[in-house]
Design a protein that fits this description.
About 55% of the residues lie in helices and about 5% in strands. The chain is mainly alpha-helical. It has one domain (about 1-370): Glycosyltransferase, CATH 1.50.10. The strands form four sheets. The chain has a three-stranded antiparallel β-sheet. The protein is globular, with a radius of gyration of 19 Å.
Length: about 375
């Protein structure tokens, strides 16, 4: 069972490595993910590169190193970090707090789990989150600088990072409490997107649920406070009821949305492996989270395309895991950045984000696969 998902995760990693990883501008010792496959010239030249997609690529590399430690992959992690810093013009920061939070999380895990530490980068990013906290303006931290939109995708990952890094647990708790007080739907118990100029933005995205599950699970572990475990249990139940038809996590297409359900899978796996089991309800929540990951992973694997690259048949995952993946081509509309977000390619499977989510899901399935469940996958 464990080897089955290890093999599938390794295949997903190989697909990304062969189709997407390239030197930045041909420079030795660097690497980034080309944001589309098949790639147009501007993709290969990294004229478009999407900071937060690269952060998730780094996080997936750390997942793989944890699954199967390898010196060459560790070098890829080093190259990926260097490539992101160089493409960001020799800086770690940008104008978007959610972007920076994703990179901070990946850097923290690279140091703790893969032996590639960047303490100055982590301190720099930590300072960004601590100083952005503005409860007097209605937050939370904002989505981006000089903005009045306070949302879960910024506060959730920043809170996880502050819980993990340095002596910032109290601030992480404040961020979790703010989300719970302001952004929880009283009817479904799902997480709303955010609040803008005092008005609730009622969209409910899968990755909002994921980052809140991650934050509350970290706090349940680190504080021992049963309130955080209760919030995890409540949200796992809400996700199972409202965001996983037939047990498969909902997709959101390509572009930025291609990452959304992969992020939810990552943090459901954290619940399944990490939530303290103090009560029968905790154990049940862990099992539900595990089943959601495995059922989604089985569907994504069954619906993949198998594409030959240099003689190897490697998976290409669908944007919607319950549907057959569509094979992309180099023609048609390309993903475009509009007002801080990336819209989907005409065939969303072309987008790196979609393929990263598939890889993230396979790693999540591997992480939870050594625990008992009544939802065991089959096949190879």
């Amino acid at each position: 069972m464990d080897q089955l998902w290890a093999n599938r995760a390794a295949s997903a990693e190989a697909a990304i490595t062969q189709r997407h990883l390239r030197r930045l501008w041909g420079l030795p010792g660097t690497q980034l993910g080309v944001v589309a496959w098949p790639a147009a010239p501007q993709h290969k030249q990294f004229k478009t590169w999407h900071y937060w997609w690269q952060a998730h690529l780094l996080d997936c590399l750390v997942d793989a190193q944890l699954r199967d430690p390898d010196p060459e992959r560790q070098r890829r992690i080093v190259r990926q970090i260097r490539g992101q810093w160089m493409r960001n013009i020799g800086r770690w920061v940008n104008d978007y707090y959610d972007d920076m939070a994703w990179l901070a999380l990946a850097l923290e895990r690279a140091g703790r789990l893969a032996g590639v530490s960047k303490p100055r980068a982590q301190d720099t990013l930590c300072h960004q989150f601590v100083t952005a906290w503005v409860p007097e303006d209605g937050g939370g931290i904002p989505w981006r600088k000089q903005d009045q939109f306070f949302n879960a995708p910024a506060n959730g990952p920043a809170g996880i990072y502050l819980a993990r890094y340095g002596d910032r647990l109290r601030r992480a708790q404040q961020m979790a409490d703010w989300i719970d007080e302001v952004l929880i739907d009283p009817d479904t118990h799902l997480v709303f997107d955010g609040i803008k100029a005092g008005s609730l933005v009622r969209a409910q995205y899968t990755y909002c649920q994921g980052v809140v599950l991650g934050l509350e699970t970290e706090l349940a572990v680190r504080t021992g406070d049963d309130e955080h475990a209760m919030r995890v249990r409540r949200l796992v139940g809400a996700v199972a009821e409202h965001m996983a038809p037939d047990g498969v996590l909902k997709g959101a297409g390509g572009g930025d949305g291609g990452l959304f359900h992969g992020i939810l899978a990552r943090y459901l796996a954290l619940v399944a492996t990490t939530l303290p089991e103090k009560t029968a309800e905790d154990t049940a929540a862990r099992d539900i989270a595990r089943r959601l990951v495995l059922t989604s992973a089985e569907a994504a694997w069954d619906n993949r395309q198998t594409v030959g690259v240099d003689g190897a048949g490697l998976p290409l995952f669908g944007a919607f895991w319950e549907r057959a993946a569509e094979l992309p081509t180099a023609v048609g509309r390309q993903a475009q950045s509009v007002d801080g977000a990336v819209n989907a390619s005409e065939v969303p499977e072309r987008d790196l984000s979609v393929q990263l989510s598939g890889w993230m899901l396979m790693e999540a399935a591997h992480a939870v696969s050594d625990q008992p469940s009544d939802a065991e996958p089959t096949g190879t």
